[in-house]
Amino acid sequence: MDEPYCETPAPAPVAASGPPPFAECVLCRKPTQYPESVKGVTLCPVCEWQEAQRTSCSG
Q1: Does the residue 3 lie in any domain?
Q2: What is the C-alpha to C-alpha distance for residues 25 and 42, in angstroms, rounded to an integer?
Q3: Which of 9, 15, 42, 53 is the most exposed place for a label (fewest CB within 10 A)?
């Protein structure tokens, strides 16, 4: 067996123009993990987690 057991894929090349601009959170205005092209309510990871906590305890 000449092939390695766990082969990690090469990272995807980044376009010369850079990553797309990120949408800002509708609650705290911090950058989110979503591009600006995403439609709907975008939340940063912290606000997304807090919203999940609120909705899971409201039932």
Answers
A1: no
A2: 5
A3: 9
User: How many angstroms from the chain centroid is the CA of residue 36?
Assistant: 12
Residues with Cβ within 8 Å of residue 47, at least 6 apart in sequence? 25, 27, 28
Does the residue 11 lie in any domain? no
Domain carrying residue 47: 22-56
Q: Which residues on neighbouring strands pair with residue 22, listed in sequence order?
A: 35
Tell me whether residue 32 is in a domain: yes
Residue whose tokens read 């990871």: 45
**φ, ψ of residue 48 in degrees (nearest 5):** -65, -45
The pLDDT tens digits for 14-46 are: 555 666 789 999 999 999 999 999 888 899 999
The pTM (predicted TM-score) of the whole model is: 0.57
Q: Residues 28, 44: contact at Cβ < 8 Å?
A: yes
